[in-house]
Structure formats: C-alpha cells, structure tokens
Amino acid sequence: MNPDQRKDWDTYFMDIAYMVSTRSRCSRRHVGAVLVQGKKLLGTAYNGAPSGVPDCSEAGCMIAEEYEVVIENGEEKMVKKQRCVRTIHAEQNLLLFTDRIDREGSSVYVTDEPCWTCANMLANSGITEIVFHRPYPKDSGKVTAMMKQKGIRFRRLESYQPPPETVVRVEE
Question: Would the annotation count 118 as a binding residue?
Fold first, then answer.
C-alpha cells in the first residue's frame, strides 16, 4: 500500500478487530469484535473465560460433545462436534460491555462470522450491520436468512487480509 494512501473504513475497523483478537487465550480460535457507530469506535471485545476465572490456557478447554445430522452427497450422516463451553464469545462480551443506546444503529465488525447463538443476540441488540471476515459454514445459511429477515446488513470481507502480526495459529 502506498504510504500516502489511507485504509478504507472496513479495513481499518477489521484490522482493529483482529488486533483485539490477540488478547484471546483460547487455544481453538481467537476472535475479536468491535462496535462502531458511524466512524466512531464504541467498544471492543474478544473471546475468553469470564473475568477472574481460569481460562483455557490455564485450566484446559471444557469440551462438550454433540452429535449433528449433516447431509453429504444426498445422504444423512451423524457427525460428532466438539465445542468449548468455558469461553464466552467475542460478540457476547461486546454486548455485555456496551450500552444498548450505543448499539442502536451501529455496526459490529467481527473477525469470524457469528454462530447461531451470537447471531440471535446481535439480532436483538439494536445493531443494523454485521461485517465479518472468516466464514463459519456450520451456521451460515440460517444466520444469513435471519439477518435478511431482520433487515440487518450482513456482509463478508472476502478479499480482506489481516495484519500479519494478528494472525495466530490455533488448533482446529
């Protein structure tokens, strides 16, 4: 990028979300979220254990196993899924630590497409836009449909490249 050229607002705020994600101590995924009204940054959050509670790096992940029916090549299959229940998602923390009045008409920039639970919470939060970078295919279809139904602008920054110092390799 030319040093005289400024980043566009989407890149600027997504860069901040990625920087915020570096605070996460989750061994599975680092997620950051920022709340923006107009061009004003109103709050930041990342995923992790509740304040004052040992996090996954200290106490290990608290894994819950679930089974889900998926359709592959026209056939139903049972797939075992694992998720950590110790971690509060970045979007949930953002909602916990910002005021409703600030969320009205605002945008949320989040490094990862929200899961179904976070999407439900964001849909009732007063925000009018969600911008994300990395897809979350498991819930994408139903989240996209709900956002359309709610009239919330929902878009992915597909060509975005996060700052190299914010990319953290985590377990899959």
Answer: yes
Q: Which amino acid is at 103?
A: R
pTM: 0.87
Cα 153 from chain centroid?
Answer: 15
How far apart are the C-alpha atoms of 59 and 44, rounded to whole Å? 25
> What backbone phi and psi angles, to 5 degrees, belong to 13?
-75, -35
User: Of the residues 65, 66, 76, 91, which is catalytic?
Assistant: 91
- pLDDT of 120-141, one tens digit each? 999 999 999 999 999 998 889 9
**Residue 84 labelled as part of a binding site:** no
Each domain of the chain, given as residue ranges in start order, spans: 9-48+87-160
> Is the domain covering 9-48+87-160 a CATH 3.90.550.10 domain?
no
